[in-house]
Amino acid sequence: MRFRLAPSPPAWALLLTLFAGCGGAAEYAVVGTARSPGTDGTVRVESLEGGNQLVTISLTNVVPPDRLGQGITQYVAWFIGNNQPPVLAGRLAFDPDARTATLTATTPLRAFELRITAERDNASAPGDIVVVQRRIAGEE
After folding, report:
1. Phi then psi for 24, rounded to 5 degrees?
2. How many structural domains compose the chain?
3. Per the confidence metrics, is the pTM higher than 0.85?
């Protein structure tokens, strides 16, 4: 009985297989500031076609925003690039029963500071009540 060996795949196929796992999502741990010390969570950043980044924020043990000051109603995420003004990423969806907050947003920035603040309605710039702050590293 003779065994026949399968032909070896071409070199380009091997390289494609090796690089298929590269360039995946990066995940960053976040913790609350002194204003919200029990808060923790993750920020997941993955590249999209066209050069944008998909940013998924998931926080747990979040203090209800109204406990942080009179008139405070929401959590807002801001992306701050190097030498650029803050850009509103969006308002986090807060679940008071689970004490979680989530947001999915996009940005063209590869490296930025993520700042989550507790705000009144219609915030146009980050306020002083910072609950999470994290540098997101990447190529810019």
Report:
1. -75, -170
2. 1
3. no
